[in-house]
Design a protein that fits this description.
Elements: E1 11-14, H1 23-32, E2 36-37, E3 42-43, H2 44-48, H3 53-57, E4 66-71, H4 75-89, E5 93-100, H5 105-108, H6 127-137, E6 142-146, H7 152-165, E7 170-173, H8 187-196, E8 201-204, H9 210-220, E9 224-227, H10 236-247, H11 255-275, H12 284-291, H13 298-307, H14 319-347
The structure holds flavin mononucleotide (FMN).
Length: about 350
C-alpha cells in the first residue's frame, strides 16, 4: 500500500492542484500536518515529449513521500509517462494517481481528465482499462481520482470497475463534470462507494473546517479526506484539523497569532521556492495574495502587494533575472506581513 491507512485514520490529503501544489507548497503542507500530498497534474503528452515541467514540479523536498498525478487521454501514453516518472522520482514517489475528474475545457477538449469518464465501459481508454494498463507496466501502485455521474448506479459501477482493474485506492470528488466547482459535493454517493469497495476510498469536495470534516466522517467513514481550495494560501488548515482530530475540540487561536502563523508559513514557502530554484515557475505575487485570505486587513495587504514592481515586464526576463526579481519581491511581501501582524497585535485587544 502506498500509504498506511490503518495507522493514520482518518488521513488528511492535500489535493492535486495545478499551479498550487508545487514541491515548495507541498512541503509546507506536510510540515503543517498533511498526511499525504500530490503533485500538480503532469501532462503525459508533455512529459513524453521532454517538456521540463515534470522535472521542475514533480519532485519532493526532503524525500517526503508523495503521489504523482498524471493527466492524459490514452492508456498507452499514460503508462509510458508513469514508467518515466517513477524512474525519475522513486523512492519518494509512492503512487501514480490518474486524473479522471478535471472538468476544465482545455483539458477535456483533448479527451483528458473528466472526458475519460465519458468513454464507454470496455473501451481501451475507459478509466478502468487505463488503470489496468498502467498497473501492468508500473512498479508503483496506481490510484484514480474521479468525479461522480448524475446516475449513482453508474458512479458505483465505475468505482467498482476501478477497484477490479487494480486501483490501490479511489478518490472521489462528489461533483459531476457539469457542476465544475458549483453546488455542493454529494457525500452520500461517496458513502455508498465506501460501502461497496474494499480498497481505501478518499473523499474530496467541500472540506473546509472542523465541522465539515466531522460531518463527512460521520456520513461516509472514508479512509481519507482530501482538501483542495480551503488549503490554498492556508496550509495551516492541516494543523487545525490535526489538532481537532487529536483532541475533539477546535483549536482557539487569537487573530494576531493566526497572522503570525500565516506569515511564518509564507516565509517557509518562499524559502523553499528559493532553495529549490522554483522562483521562475511560481507567480509569487498571486500566491502571496492567497495567504492573506481571511486575515484582517487582507484587502489593504493585497493592494500593497499588487503595487510592488508593477512596472517590471517579466516576459522579457531570463530565468536568473526572474528569480532575482521574485526574490526581492518576496522580501517586500514578507515586510507587509510583518507590518500588518504588528498592527494587528496593537489593535486587537483580548
Ligand atoms: C486551482 C485548482 C487546480 C486544480 N488542479 C487539479 C489537478 O491538477 N488535478 C486534479 O485532479 N484536480 C485538480 N483540482 C481539483 C481539486 O483537486 C479538488 O478535486 C477540487 O478542488 C475539490 O476539492 P475542494 O472542494 O476541497 O476544493 C484543482 C482545483 C483547483 C481549485
Amino acid at each position: 500500500m502506498f500509504f498506511d491507512f490503518n495507522s493514520k485514520k482518518p488521513a488528511l490529503f492535500l489535493a492535486p492542484m495545478a499551479d498550487v501544489t508545487n514541491p515548495a507548497f507541498r512541503h509546507v503542507a506536510h510540515i503543517c500536518g498533511a498526511d499525504f500530498t500530490y503533485t500538480e497534474m503532469i501532462h503525459s503528452d508533455g512529459f513524453n515529449h521532454d517538456d521540463p515541467y515534470a522535472k521542475n514540479r514533480g519532485f519532493s523536498i526532503g524525500g517526503v513521500p508523495y503521489g504523482i498525478q498524471i493527466v492524459g487521454n490514452d492508456a498507452e501514453s499514460i503508462a509510458k509517462t508513469a514508467a518515466g516518472l517513477e524512474g525519475l522520482f522513486s523512492p519518494a514517489a509512492k503512487v501514480i494517481d490518474i486524473n479522471m475528474g478535471c472538468p476544465s475545457p482545455p483539458i477535456t477538449k483533448t479527451g483528458c481528465g473528466a472526458a475519460l469518464m465519458a468513454q464507454d465501459f470496455g473501451t481501451a481508454n475507459h478509466p478502468a482499462n487505463i488503470v489496468r494498463r498502467v498497473c501492468e507496466t508500473a512498479e508503483l501502485p496506481v490510484t484514480a481520482k474521479i468525479r461522480i455521474y448524475k446516475d449513482h448506479e453508474k458512479t458505483l459501477r465505475l468505482a467498482k470497475s476501478l477497484e477490479d482493474a487494480g486501483a490501490a485506492a479511489v478518490t472521489v470528488h462528489g461533483r459531476t463534470r457539469g457542476q465544475m466547482y458549483s453546488g455542493n459535493a454529494d457525500w452520500k454517493i461517496i458513502a455508498e462507494i465506501k460501502k461497496e469497495l474494499s480498497v481505501p476510498v478518499i473523499l474530496n469536495g467541500d472540506i473546509v473546517d472542523e465541522k465539515s470534516l466531522q460531518t463527512a466522517m460521520d456520513l461516509t467513514n472514508c479512509d481519507g479526506y482530501m482538501i483542495g481550495r480551503a488549503a490554498i494560501g492556508n496550509p495551516n488548515l492541516f494543523r487545525e484539523l490535526k489538532f481537532y482530530l487529536e483532541t475533539g475540540e477546535p483549536e482557539i487561536v487569537s487573530v494576531p497569532d493566526e497572522f503570525e502563523i500565516r506569515g511564518a508559513d509564507l516565509n517557509q514557502y518562499f524559502e523553499n521556492l528559493k532553495r529549490y530554484n522554483l522562483l521562475p515557475h511560481v507567480n509569487v505575487r498571486a500566491h502571496a495574495q492567497w495567504f492573506t485570505k481571511g486575515l484582517p486587513y487582507s484587502r489593504e495587504m493585497r493592494l500593497k502587494i499588487n503595487d510592488f514592481h508593477k512596472e517590471i515586464k517579466i516576459r522579457h526576463l531570463s530565468d536568473d533575472e526572474l528569480s532575482a526579481e521574485r526574490e526581492s519581491l518576496t522580501v517586500e511581501i514578507l515586510n507587509v506581513f510583518d507590518e500588518y501582524a504588528e498592527k494587528c497585535r496593537r489593535e486587537f485587544v483580548f
